[in-house]
Amino acid sequence: MSRLMESRLAVSGLDKIYRKIQDGARLGADDGLALYRTRDLTSVGFLANLVRERISGHLTYFVRNLHINYTNICNKGCKFCSFYAASDDPRAYVLSMDDIRDQVRKHDDVLIREIHIVAGINPKLPYQYYLDLIRAVKDTRPGVQVKAYTMIELAQIQRVANKPMDEVLVDLKAAGLDCCPGGGAEVFSNRVHEELFRAKLDNEGWFDVARAVHRAGIRSNVTMLYGHIETEEEKVAHLLHIRELQDETGGFMCFVPLAFDPAGTGLGHLPITTGYANLRESAIARLLLDNIPHVKAFWIMTTPAVAQLALWYGADDLDGTVTHYEITHALGDDSHHQELRHDQLLTMIREASRLPVERDALYNPVLSPVAIS
Ligand code: V47
Description:
The chain has helices spanning 3-11, 15-23, 29-37, 41-56, 97-105, 127-140, 151-161, 165-175, 190-196, 203-215, 232-249, 275-288, 299-302, 304-310, 342-351, 369-372, and strands spanning 59-63, 65-68, 114-117, 145-148, 177-180, 219-226, 252-259, 294-295, 317-320, 355-358.
């Protein structure tokens, strides 16, 4: 390390954290708070990059994927969500199996490896719907991997299945479920739960479902929704809870920081997150989550420009081509069309002096002419 960087870390009070990282020691809650409280983002990024390069070198992962949101009907009423609709709302929809097949077929001309499926909690949907949905996708697009159902949806699926979670997961796996997305974690704080998503599964419930998923041999991601009413202490506690659960199960593939988009939500008065805040979240997550292999820069929420910079602030994954994202609007307009072609992802990664690796939903590198070109 250069003398300049050494004195910079000393001035910002992060030299102790640097020594812990060098020694491979775990950071604690106090370190997490110090990382949030310093104004010296460059030093936080420098530290996060040491860990990022220790874990992934210069590699940066991406996947050719597609999102399907099978219903927007939801009975949870989360204050941060603009996607949900009551069943009598004119915007309300439920996709039939034919609709699902049509949505998949629309992309027949492009290579897709992962289909990411999440939706609202619609109490009218029967158990069979969730199994048929996975089968419909896999029949229409043989070989594609299905990343479906957050822990919140799984709790609902178990409710309608009316049988133990372990048996539900066996059925879902048999239908073709490959892994689960990380949504619904929000912030593991009873206060935030009470204020923003009271009707939803509580934090302990989320952990229990994740434990069952990992026990069933299904890997998942985990998210944190930031930029609303949460405190720095609550974010540190959230990250440390995840680290503890990962020590226990080892089932998390990737941490996904999700920048809150206030447009159309019950928190519409809040500002959108800044580039500074977005880079800080990916860097601190990389430093505290020493046992999670990947940190995602989800460009949909932060803009591609900031996601590209995040590759030097802890992140080693750019998610993917995405195409259409219903949960939030495209920044700056009212549409849901949000797409980066794989060649644009490659350019972004290479321009940032990182090495692109095309992956599948489970982070296995795939050798394709694009990945090696
Ligand atoms: O759980 C809801 C979040 C999540 C808003 O696993 C919002 O690879 C921002 O989990 N502003 C669903 N976020 C999306 C999700 C996800 C996304 C990308 C990749 C992965 C992965 C998972 O979206 C919800 C909630 O936390 N969300 N409303 C909003 N206004």
